[in-house]
Fold each of these.
Amino acid sequence: MTMPMKLYVGDILRLKKTHPCGGAEWEVLRTGMDFRVKCLKCGHSVMISRVKLEKDIKKVLKSMGGDVAAPPEQDQ
Ligand SMILES: [Zn+2]
């Protein structure tokens, strides 16, 4: 069992796969079964499946789920 990665809108990711423009850093614009990520270098956004994206992540540079700008936690 592998833990699903916690990814949030606004996260900055460094992927193994680079955009044709050469950028390797991406911002998460939309989460779900499919993610939309924006290339930080040229500003283009692409759709990518969660499975594929998780495999491509080299490093999470900024996580909205971390200490930085963490959303308020609520017990549900
Ligand atoms: Zn690009």
Amino acid sequence: MNMQSRVFRRLAMSLVAATVLSTVTVVTAREPFTKDELKAMDEKLTASAKRGYDMWYGARADMSSNGLACANCHPDGAATNPQTFPKYMPQTDRVMAFRDMVNWCIENPQVGKALDVSSADMVALESYAFYLHRGVAIDTGLQTRQTAGPTPKSARGLNVKGTGIGFDK
Ligand code: HEC
């Protein structure tokens, strides 16, 4: 190996070492969150869950073409069982994530336009449903007995204005 390539090799190796070191610095544990930071983060989640609540009650027109909204069949998030996902669903013959099932209900019972799975609005529906299920043990794959929500007689009279989370009027 000549002098030039030896110098080059040494340079390349120290570059690799520097990269590894800087990566290690980035992944070290951070300081605990301050109260203000926790409050700000909680407010972001609450805002997302509130948006989800509004959508649950039909705030997004393109999600339904027959006047039905999630709340007609899943009041207070009933029978959505977020703690059981991902799980195999017979109607699609595949393992589905919670958000896939949300889109399934938008496209089938509501005959609406499916949401972009990585959109803020999809996350909002998840924030609402998961928020209402805090503390419920994860039970991935559980095929619940309570799969059918109540059959709505009419979609009229829905409260489309969100009033808060954790309860439905
Ligand atoms: C017309 C009634 C109806 C509407 C409206 C409806 N769903 Fe459903 N939903 C059902 C029925 C019935 C099932 C059970 C399907 C099955 O298990 O095969 C279901 C299942 C689900 C599940 C899976 C539950 C489980 O444990 O497997 C999720 C999640 C869900 N719905 C979310 C939603 C969301 C979110 C909306 C609104 C965008 C919505 N649904 C609108 C009737 C409805």
